[in-house]
Amino acid sequence: MALDLLPKGADVLEFGAGTGIDAKTFAARGHRTFVYEPSEAMRDYLARHCRDEIAQETIVPISSPLACKVQGVTANFAVLNHFADHAPLFEELSRVVHQDGFVLASMLNPYYLGDARYDWWRKNLVNLLRRGHYAIPSESSIHRFVPRVVARAATPYFRLERVTPRGLRLATDLYMFLLFRRL
User: Any residues with CB less than 8 A from the CB of 61 and at least 6 apart, and which?
Assistant: First the structure.
């Protein structure tokens, strides 16, 4: 999805780059890829996994998302589910993303019925319906959000353009993708 949104040769930021698997794909397709990864262990793995691309500067590790200016930001594998409040993040990303650029985030789907077998999901159903979000008590501090809550946090810098999947697939897909367009 991100590759379809990026103009030829456009720079991209992978926010929460993890091991660099996606970064390698972007770089191989001609996109200089800035990678921001806060976990030291993941940064070490990324440095090994992407050493050739880093040496060629097609992948550029950065210590802050503010260290680049890009057409698009990707946040894959539920990175944004680690944030309790997205408003400061979207404000920061508004200084990184070009006008009409995008943020594409995969997030854990709060409607996923496969989680209904867990006590924490059933206990939080009322919170989801009333407030549009809930936190799962764990050391990794995972939060689940309905798209409108994240869209509200992105305002006034971004507008929610697309949610995938839609309809009944919201009940069957573990992840949902939110596409935000920079205003």
Answer: 34, 35, 36, 37, 43, 46, 47, 54
Q: What is the pLDDT along the chain (183 residues), one digit of tens a residue?
A: 999 999 999 999 999 999 999 999 999 999 999 999 999 999 999 999 999 999 999 999 999 999 999 999 999 989 999 999 999 999 999 999 999 999 999 999 999 999 999 999 999 999 999 999 999 877 778 999 999 999 999 999 999 999 999 999 999 999 999 999 999
What's the predicted TM-score (pTM) here?
A: 0.94
Domain count of the fold of the chain:
1
Q: Is 135 left (phi over 0), alpha (psi -120 to 50) or beta?
A: beta
Q: Is residue 119 part of a domain?
A: no
Residue 84 falls inside a structural domain: yes
